[in-house]
Design a protein that fits this description.
The complex is a heterodimer of chains A (about 110) and B (about 110). In chain A, about 0% of the residues lie in helices and about 55% in strands. Chain A has no helices and 11 strands. In chain A, the strands form 2 sheets. In chain A, strands 2, 4, 5, 9, 10 and 11 form a 6-stranded mixed beta sheet that branches. A 5-stranded antiparallel beta sheet of chain A has the order 1-3-8-7-6, with no helix packed on it. The radius of gyration of chain A is 13 Å and the shape is globular. In chain B, strand 5 and strand 6 form a beta hairpin. In chain B, strands 2, 4, 5, 6, 9, 10 and 11 form a 7-stranded mixed beta sheet that branches. Chain B starts with a strand and ends with a strand. The chains are: A mainly beta (about 110), B mainly beta (about 110). The interface of A and B includes residues 1, 45, 97, 101 and 102 of A.
């Protein structure tokens, strides 16, 4: 089955700096890669997703890149703000309606 | 749109009792997924259901756990004869199939 790895497990950046989280997956059949943000005690929320026919996608300060050959995908957050502090999960699935397998999470702290 | 509704938000059960967790998907969503999250850990897939059908239950423990999504009413995750190790947050998510999951607020189960 699919296995998703994620690093770093914790990340601390100064406000205004960039943050990068990297993930790898094992199942070459995976074609859908969502990213979720979970604040303490709250539900995970979808922040961006990318499909295998696209190499990069941007939404304001957030961008994701995908290298399907290497089975790598990354989340980039620019101009970080304190409200970006949360746990971020990468995930992979065959399609957007199949079961999604999550990485172990990255705890991001943005220091004012 | 009320989003994905889960109840109860908090549930306390004594060892050996049954826990019943409910999830009503977003309007128009026919796919329901259950995940378990232990404190400071990631989201572990349990089961994927559509109306009256279990599509994938590969993450469900073989004993004591069951799930259903009847034609009418919410999806139910049932845990029989709970043990302390069942204490966790249980998140339900729904999807229309076109976009990633929308999660509910979760049910925090505590077994005493």
């Amino acid at each position: 089955g699919e296995n998703v790895e994620q690093h770093p497990s914790t990340l601390s950046v100064q406000e205004g700096d960039s943050a990068v989280i990297k993930c790898t997956y094992s199942d070459s059949a995976s074609n859908y890669f969502p990213w979720y943000k979970q604040e303490l005690g709250k539900r995970p929320q979808l922040i961006i997703d990318i499909r295998s026919n696209v190499g990069e996608k941007k939404d304001q300060r957030i961008a994701v890149t995908l290298n399907k050959t290497a089975k790598h995908f990354s989340l980039h957050i620019t101009e970080t703000q304190p409200e970006d502090s949360a746990v971020y999960f990468c995930a992979a699935s065959e399609t957007s309606y199949d079961k999604v397998i999550f990485g172990p999470g990255t705890s991001l702290s943005v220091i004012p | 749109n009320a989003g994905v509704m889960q109840n109860p938000r908090h549930l306390v059960r004594r060892r050996g009792q049954e826990a019943r967790l409910r999830c009503s998907p977003m309007k128009g969503h026919s796919h329901v997924y259950w995940y378990r999250q232990l404190p400071e850990e990631g989201l572990k897939f349990m089961v994927y259901l559509q109306k009256e059908n279990i599509i994938d239950e590969s993450g469900m423990p073989k004993e004591r756990f069951s799930a259903e999504f009847p034609k009418e009413g919410p999806s139910i995750l049932r845990i029989q004869q709970v043990v302390r190790g069942d204490s966790a947050a249980y998140f339900c998510a729904s999807s229309s199939g076109e976009k990633g999951y929308t999660f509910g607020s979760g049910t925090r189960l505590t077994v005493v």
